[in-house]
Amino acid sequence: MPDMLARLKPDPIPKISPVPEYLATGRLLDVYNATKKGLNVPWMGVVSMSFAHYPNFYDQLWSSLAPVASTAPFAKACAELRAVAEANALQLKPALLGEELARRGYAPEELDEIRACIEIFSVGNMPYVLMATLARLQLEGQDLGAGGPTGPRVGGAPFPDRPALMQLHHADPTTRALFDDVMKTLGLPLVNTDYRAFARWPSYFALAWADMKRAIEGPGYADAVLATHNTVVNLARSLPNPSGLTSSALIAAAEKDAPLAEVLSVVRLFQWLLPGLIVNVGFMQEQLKAA
Fold it and tell me: Core-most of 51, 142, 179, 265, by most CB within 10 Å?
């Protein structure tokens, strides 16, 4: 059995160059739309937008991932990963926030809107985590299996429209300070799409983040994220590889765009942060469950 892939945060943190969806045109817009359709998600994650900055690398990666994403094994892996992330999040003892938010004036319908937004990311983050992990494995010289798919993906209702996002330049000083705290606490140069969507409800997000920050800085968080990372790696290695993409082919494609070390550092950044993100989203989902 292959050695477990270490959880690795690049140092220094690489510069990333994602192009927001609303600025994408021409071929890049086509790439974004193909990614969203292929993964059955309503938004381009920062991970895929950052990967798409390296067009030869991303074309090669997506050419192998697209036929996998439509299979039953991929859907099963996503569901299993979500279950593991949420179980690990539950161990961190999220506070139940529904009653406090109701006291602050949130109507049941508003809380349902927040839950629906969280659900989008609870489902949709899983393919992005697997994408980043498959990319890292292959850029680090680990070939995947060559087996084909074992059946088509079943179900998977179309997603709603892309969530409204609170961009950094939209934020007032209070929300911007909250975003800065998110980046500082997580050790990241970016605010993930999820948090920008949740900040649409600023008073909710401030309350939810305060509880989450308590868990992130407390005992057990690193273990929960590491256990989730290990599950991601095992599931990624179990996926079929119908196109037969090899490590050497993906490395050669990346080297057409930039030095391999640069592309690999960007891939490692997202493969490091995404297991934590799915634990955090699972944590926020639990915060809004009924008491």
Answer: 51
